[in-house]
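Q: Joint fold for the lines below.
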Amino acid sequence: MKNKLFEKYFIFSPYFWLVLFFFIPLAIIFKISISVSEWGMPPYQDIFLFDNGFKINTTYENYVYIFSDYYYIGSFVNSLILALISTFFCLLIGFPLAFFIATSNIRLRNMLLVLVVIPFWSSFLLRVYAWKIILQNNGILNLILLNLGITSEPLQLLYNQYAVIMGIVYTYLPLMILPLYGYLNKFDLNLIEASKDLGLNRIKTFFKVILPLSVPGIVAGSLLVFIPVVGEFIIPEMLGGSDRLYYGKILWEEFFVNRNWPGASALAFSGIIILVLPIVIFQILYSRWSQKNEI
Amino acid sequence: MKSSLIKSTVIFLGLFFLYFPILVLIFYSFNENKRVMVWKGFSLRWYNELFNNEQIIEAFIISIKIAALSATFATILGVMIGYSLVRIRKIPFKSFYIFLSSTPLVLPELILGLSMLLFFISLNNVIGFPSSRGQLTIFISHVTFCIAFVAIIIQARLTDFNKNIEEAAMDLGYNYTKVLYKITLPIILPSIIAGWLLAFTISLDDLVVASFTTGPGANTLPIVVFSKVRLGLSPEVNALSAILMFALIIIGLFYFYFNKKFKH
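A: Joint structure:
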């Protein structure tokens, strides 16, 4: 009897908190996204009207509005492309690193792993700021390029999409390396030897043995980089220029500058549906499946 | 021989890439010149100015306070979730429970921040609270998205460790509550500390969610730093960076120390 009470306490305390402070806020975003906007404070009409009998006052105009305007769609597409490119480069740098760390001897391995993840602990904002210093017109990178004679005058490295990609790859790299390492660490290195003994050369060994075995790690790492990058606001704001607009910036401005709450909510809710929901459903199905197989 | 050379080169270049920007930041923090990029000589001037900058000191204290409180709450609730998911069979609407406890991990901060802000505004319209936003609303938001991080650490730890110990204690006459407090919690204590450290750092580092839910008198450190470096460079922020990087890296090492214990 007492056990039950105690179990309930454990289940329902966080349940209560998350429903109240996480689920209801998401529901409110949805509610405002289907509200009719108007001038005033708050800048939308209630969805339930009681003044002349009960009436539901909703609209899908906000969604039509953002999905028919290239300004919004284009920014979202820009963010998807940005996320795709950044994920690719994180993988390109992260994979060899994770692979070589996983194949080191055990003492070195732990040390290297800590060394790779430690920068991730230091402040995100300041790591982005560091790139602002490096990429300045009179910054270190330009200094090196000038001294090597590669360029005769300082290059404009900052405030464009390349600087944004640079910043993202730098800050998100550990998120790619960790899951990759997790999977590479699990597999038997003798497989590589075996495939060599069977006459496969290095390139074939890589594509036929190593790569297929690390697919789950690649998927996990790519998701960890891809999703937050689509919603990234700080890095484009600090390192980017006006050459490209991104989803995060548009959402921010729609809310704070245009004061179009229903529009911003529709943008946010579309982001959840397109980006987050598929992954969460996959996760729940996967955890149920693995639990069932365990029992 | 050749392949080990490639290996060392890749690892060296990787680490260089990860640490070079941090070293640059620390290097420039010792620059005497007010113009950040022009080297004038070694000096501790900006550290001195930093410690006399009331705005930054105040923001730092607010940030630490919010981070410590929200990490503590998030750890308590996160441990409860981790324990429920691994040890308690019957959870009503379990998929919904998993949805609630894992979605904050993948939800872009911007969307989370917006939803929290609109929630607080709506709540204020309905019950008249919170009448203005500030440290309390940042605290609530931070607890909400830190819970998930603690929960996965605890979940992993509890899945790892042998249930037999708990059952043995049960057979020896311990009741349910006693097993939890005398056996389970002490065994997972290192993971609880690791979870707290992670939540603390996430809260301390958060800019986006805090920007949405902040109000008068609640400028956290990242908000102040962002306002200083959004458009340019600031020598004081350089000095702050060096100190903060150092402190956070030490917290990170502690995290590894505690989290390592769980592997054995």
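Q: Anything notable?
A: The radius of gyration of chain A is 25 Å. Chain A has 13 helices and two strands.
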